[in-house]
Structures are given as C-alpha cells and as structure tokens.
Specification:
The structure is a single chain. 40% of the residues lie in helices and 18% in strands. By secondary structure, it is an alpha/beta fold. The chain has one domain: Rossmann fold. Helix 1 packs across helix 6.
Amino acid sequence: MPPSTHSPRILAFAGSTRKDSYNKKLINIAAAAARQAGAEVTVVDLAQLAMPLYDGDLEAREGIPPNGKKFKELLKSHQGMLIAAPEYNSSITGVLKNAIDWASRPEPNEPALVAFAGKVAGIMSASPGALGGLRGLVHLRAILGNIHVIVVTDQVAINTAHEAFNPDGSLKDEKKQAAVEGLAKKVVSVTSRLMG
C-alpha cells in the first residue's frame, strides 16, 4: 500500500552501531512491513549520527551537538517510532540511551519533550541469548513511558539471533517474522488513529 498524504511518518532505528547488527536486520523487517501498511518510513543508522556522551556542561557551553539536533529533528518530524534494541548487561545500549538523552533536551521556546511526547513506539530486540533481549526491553519501555511515548503493548524478542536470520535478512521462523511485521503494522494503525 503506497503512502498517502495522510500517512503516518515512522522513524525506524536500531540501538546499535555495529555493521552486521542483528537488530539492524530486525528493524529492516519492521520498516518494510510498516511501508506495506501504508506508512512513510525513514530508517536511520545511529552509526551515522555519532554524538558525544551527554554532558550538562557541554550542553550549557555549546548546546545540543549537531547530530543530536539532527536526530531530534527526525523524531519531531515523525509521529511514530520502531526501535530494535540490543541488550547489553540486562539493559539497553549506551548509544541508544545517549541518543534518547540528547533528543530529550529542550531548546529555547520549545515544549518539553517535543521529540517524544505523544509519539507511538513499537519495541523489539534480537539477541544471541535465550531471552532474546527481553530484559533490555523492560528498561526501554520504562524510559519511553517516562518521556511520554505511547509504547504499544506488543513487543518482540528474537532469541538465538545468530541462527535466526536467512541470508536475505528475513527470519527463518515464519511465526517470528509475522510477529515483527504485526508489531510494525500495529504501530502504523495506532499512529494513524491518533492522527485522526
């Protein structure tokens, strides 16, 4: 289904900078499904948006760094998000948390949390471990909820990720593939309804 003038805009990204990241593969599946559901989807690679670690003194001195501003503007111009989050030590990656932290910072004459408040998100993960990154998703859901993102109740965690993907990037398990696609379509549906 091609996007219409009233199509929701969805920003899709993985919390990894690794070239062959399982979560980048996962986000590509979700992005394709969201496009098929009629959304206009932008896939962004956080490796191309390197940001310094959040530092209040740096912000006071120089403001939000250029790539932090770019990421924030992307979030502001989209109504929904698809996020694939690797699990590091039972939580989310530093690169994902740092990007969220910079994008959450207010600029003069700007509403609080303008990049996040009222946006819809679908979250997923892929991990070589047995739980598929599930523990990290608990933290991501809490963080997003606290910055007023509407996180859909469905989520997907792909375990044994090193064995889960076909050479073309699809998932070997058809039910897991369908679950990722279903999550993406739900984000498009909920976002569309909220847009009125």
